[in-house]
Amino acid sequence: MIVYFSRSGQNLYRGQCQYLNVGNTALVARAIARCFPQPIVAEIRPIIDYPDEYQQVLKTTKHELDERTFPKIMPITADIAGSNHIILAFPNWWNHLPRPIVTFMEQYQWQDKTIYPVCTHEGNRFGDSLNELSEIA
What CATH number has the domain bearing residue 64? Predict the structure, then answer.
């Protein structure tokens, strides 16, 4: 199973702020899905979308991080509980997991599951995301 969080709209792409119809992480998740014969793909979507403008997203996500707030997300219809191997794709925001990923992770039990993290970024790799995943799982 492939589970991902991505954001379209104004984004950094190769160091430049550009409008993307499909977010960077969604593109990566789709590429991974093509490697499997019958992939199950689930998107994590916040109930309230993030702004389209990149600078506004930076302000919003920094506020979430600083205030330790976590957005509510839409229900995932895929059978997470029945999947033992999960590819989890997400962007690196402020060297941390995006808050919708934390919301998602806290909704399930992770013992006896293997999580394969995939992170999109503009040069800072996973940041603290792997430590956060380990703590949550």
Answer: 3.40.50.360
Asked whether the predicted pLDDT for residue 127 surpasses 90, the reply is no
CB 70: neighbour CB atoms within 10 A? Answer: 16
Residue type, 51: P
Q: pLDDT, tens digit, for every residue of 97-108?
A: 999 999 999 999
Q: Could you tell me the residue range of the domain that residue 14 belongs to?
A: 2-136
Mean pLDDT of 80-95: 94
How does pLDDT run across 50-79, given as a tens digit for each residue?
999 999 999 999 999 999 999 999 999 899
Query: To which H or E segment does residue 11 belong?
Result: strand 9-13
Q: What is the DSSP string of 115-135?
A: EEEEEE-SS-TTTTHHHHHHH
Query: What ranges in 34-136 are assigned the alpha helix state H?
Result: 54-67, 99-105, 129-136
Total Cβ atoms within 10 A of residue 30: 16
Asked if 101 and 120 touch (Cβ cutoff 8 Å), the reply is no
